[in-house]
Design goal:
CATH topology of the largest domain: SH3 type barrels
Distance between the termini: 54 Å
CATH class of the largest domain: Mainly Beta
Strand content: 35-45%
Largest sheet: 5 strands, antiparallel
Mean pLDDT: 89
Number of helices: 1
Low-confidence stretches: 5-24
Number of domains: 2
Helix content: 10-25%
Structural class: mainly beta
CATH architecture of the largest domain: Roll
CATH superfamily of the largest domain: SH3 Domains
Strand order of the largest sheet: 6-5-4-1-7
Number of strands: 14
Order of helices and strands: HEEEEEEEEEEEEEE
Radius of gyration: 20 Å
Length: 167
């Protein structure tokens, strides 16, 4: 009976600690920041390599400043990133910025004056436009594109997760 009670308590403790253990494993070993997370390309050009070192072959050359990228792994000064199409590689951290940007995924997506589909449109955004994210609510993000500012539904963007809420 004592052994059964021991295993019951041990199992209950394991179940209680499982979320904390899972959360700890979702942090980068170098920065302790969440993985995956979104960043943007700081430079006008950045090489994505096959491995985390300059001796590795270049697989991709990104040439769009502020392009949103998803960091999926870390190793020393290197971050493994992927783009909206799932392509990528290892990039030196100095090429990346914490500035949040998004890539418009829908052609002629409406940028609204307020976070409401009934709100008047402030602009129409073509597919492939890169915008700076100012804030995000559960279903909407406030963007800045050149001189236009407004709200867009998250479903039109790559560079934010559905659960992202921030100011």
């Amino acid at each position: 009976m004592r052994i059964q009670a021991f295993w019951t308590v041990a199992l209950a403790a394991l179940i209680a600690w499982a979320p904390e253990m899972a959360q700890a494993s979702e942090r980068g070993p170098v920065t302790n920041l969440p993985l995956p997370r979104f960043v943007s390309l700081k430079a006008n050009e950045g090489n994505a390599r096959r491995g985390p070192d300059q001796s590795h072959r270049i697989d991709w050359v990104y040439q769009r400043r502020d392009l949103p990228l998803r960091v999926t792994a870390e190793y020393e000064h290197w971050r493994k990133v992927e783009d909206a199409e799932g392509m990528g590689g290892w990039m030196h951290y100095a090429l990346l910025s914490g500035l949040r940007t998004a890539l418009v995924q829908t052609d002629m997506a409406q940028l609204h004056q307020r976070p409401d589909v009934a709100s008047p449109p402030a602009a129409l955004l073509e597919r492939g436009v890169i915008a700076r994210i100012r804030t995000c609510q559960p279903d909407w993000c406030r963007l800045e594109v050149d001189s236009a500012r407004g709200w867009i539904e998250k479903r039109h963007l790559w560079g934010v997760d559905p659960e992202d809420v921030f100011e």
